[in-house]
Amino acid sequence: MGQSENEQAAASKIPGLPPGQRLQRGWPVLHYGPIPRFKPATWELQVFGATADGDKHSWTFDEFTALPRTEVTGDFHCVTRFSMLGNRWGGIAPATLLGLVPPAPGVTHVMVWAEYGFSANLRLADFTAPTTILATHRDDDPLTVEHGFPVRLVVPHLYAWKGPKWVRAVEYMTADRRGFWEERGYHNLGDPWSEQRYTYQESPGDGPEA
């Protein structure tokens, strides 16, 4: 058995590590495009789309950071095959936003929008899962700008591309549509335990109708 096979065998025995992943000790910086410049005076987070009242809602940076905070423990699984286990994330629970801006009946998905038009689509159940968080901190430290400061979405039970950096808006949707990476060949759902990495792996019903 070669070294790579030994490493794969050892990785398969690590609790919490999905198939095809390796344990990562540090936190690599991976992103597409430039790092945005944070402008606190003009920054805002929006909720729009199929809201119950039909209106768009927004928070300034000070208003957003004053919302009730929470902390969750959750893993981070990158589709490039590294995983970081047992991270402590601090920030705002998506349920807090839904409480302030209820979705209209029939909302099934959200699109999370980030700087430069990046986006990720999520089933509403994934967005509101107990460990999903609009993170501002990791292990008590504020996120660095390279890792998404001032806020990034973290969805520990899905691959990390489902949690965009530099989040600016949440759109409520009554039907699914693909986000930035999903339009470019990534799986619509992104479950690391099923290794849902690429579009060609999708089963009927995994993605929106063409």
β-strand amount = 25-35%
Morphology = globular
Q: Helical proportion?
A: 10-25%
- In CATH, the homologous superfamily of the domain at 38-179 goes by the name Oxidoreductase, molybdopterin-binding domain
The helix-strand sequence is: HEEEHEEHEEHEEEE
Structural class: alpha+beta
CATH architecture of the domain at 38-179: Alpha-Beta Complex
Number of strands: 11
For the structure shown, list the relevant keywords.
single chain; 210 residues; alpha+beta; Sulfite Oxidase, Chain A, domain 2; six-stranded mixed sheet; five-stranded mixed sheet; 11 strands; Sulfite oxidase-like oxidoreductase; OxRdtase_Mopterin-bd_dom; OxRdtase_Mopterin-bd_sf
Per-chain topology:
Layout: H1 3-11, E1 22-23, E2 44-49, E3 57-60, H2 61-65, E4 70-77, E5 82-92, H3 94-100, E6 109-114, E7 119-123, H4 124-127, E8 133-138, E9 141-142, E10 152-154, E11 167-173
Parallel strand pairs: 1-5, 2-11
Antiparallel strand pairs: 2-3, 4-5, 5-8, 6-7, 6-11, 8-9, 8-10
Q: What would you say this structure looks like, in words?
A:
There is one protein chain. The protein is an alpha+beta fold. It has four helices and eleven strands, in the order αβββαββαββαββββ. The protein has a domain at 38-179: Oxidoreductase, molybdopterin-binding domain (Sulfite Oxidase, Chain A, domain 2). The strands form two sheets. Strands 1, 4, 5, 8, 9 and 10 form a six-stranded mixed β-sheet that branches. A five-stranded mixed β-sheet has the order 3-2-11-6-7. Strand 2 (44-49) and strand 3 (57-60) form a beta hairpin. Residues 1-20 are annotated as: Disordered. Pfam families: Oxidored_molyb (PF00174).
